[in-house]
Amino acid sequence: MTIQAAFTQLITSLAPIHDQREAANIAHIVMEHITGLSKMDRIVYKDRELTAEQSALLEKSLAALLAHQPVQYVTGSSWFYGMELQVNANVLIPRPETEELVEWIVQDVRNDRVLNRKILDIGTGSGAIPLAIKKELPAATVWAVDVSAGALETARTNARQQKLDVHFEQMDILDTTATKSLPTFDIIVSNPPYICQRERTDMQEQVVAYEPSIALFVPDDDALLFYRQIGLLAKEKLYPGGTLYFEINEAFGEETAALLRRQGYIYVEVQKDLFGKDRMVKALL
After folding, report:
1. Where do the annotations place substrate binding (predicted)?
2. For the whole model, what pTM was predicted?
3. Hey, is 191 helix, strand or coil?
4. Which residues fall in the annotated binding site?
5. Cα–Cα distance for residue pair 134/119, rounded to 1 Å
6. Each residue's pLDDT tens digit in the chain (285 positions)?
7. Contact call for residues 116 and 141 (beta carbons, < 8 A)
8. Which of 7, 13, 135, 267 could join 284 in a cystine, given CB atoms 3.0 to 4.6 angstroms apart?
């Protein structure tokens, strides 16, 4: 089978479950993964035959995609803030909205002109947030914690591949005994679980079936569980004048802000993402 024929087979096979544009995007990603060739090179060499190994990988990848596995898990990688990161079933696939959270933090630090900040990311997953921050703010000291050993293994791999120095620790952030060992920080950031269980039925099958539930869902009767606990922790672990940043559920923007005000934060701001949805909160201690 030629490169062009393989590309056509992917689009045709994916057409029943994706619109034409999305099917083409997925096909391009998979073909680059299989061949190692850029889009332009695949046009130039469209009549080149796939090797037996490449054909087997095509078959395996297509079967996974037809089972609704996200293409990022099929290829084992995802792009975030200009970095190609390893992803797998232990970690969430980084979202573009989270890049906006990183950008907010980076710009605030640069505007303050104090670049050697000490920063903690809670629930780090693939390490996307702390690695992007360290990449943009090399003078910062960056820590990251997660409850999942598998997630931390992935994050450490990404740090090595990106040649970025981030300190990772395994920790259950809801365990107040465990968190006592954390030092004090200038900035704490978190993209914690924030999707209510009742929202599961409205979500894409590929997210529910493949991405780690522990990083997605909270009980219906305690949607702000992690915001409450991290807010309390940050009051203990932030220097005076320190800042807390969250990614949030768009349905709970004002509720999250009100919670942080009740906890004693003196300035709380909700910011929308590029889609006009409440997506981030900043709170000053």
Report:
1. 191-194
2. 0.90
3. coil
4. 123-127, 146, 191-194
5. 9
6. 999 999 999 999 999 988 899 999 999 999 999 999 999 999 999 999 999 999 999 999 999 999 999 999 999 999 999 999 999 989 999 999 999 999 999 999 999 988 999 999 999 999 999 999 999 999 999 999 999 999 999 999 999 999 999 999 999 988 999 999 999 999 999 998 766 566 656 656 665 555 566 665 656 666 788 899 999 999 999 999 999 999 998 888 999 999 999 999 999 999 999 999 999 999 998
7. yes
8. 267
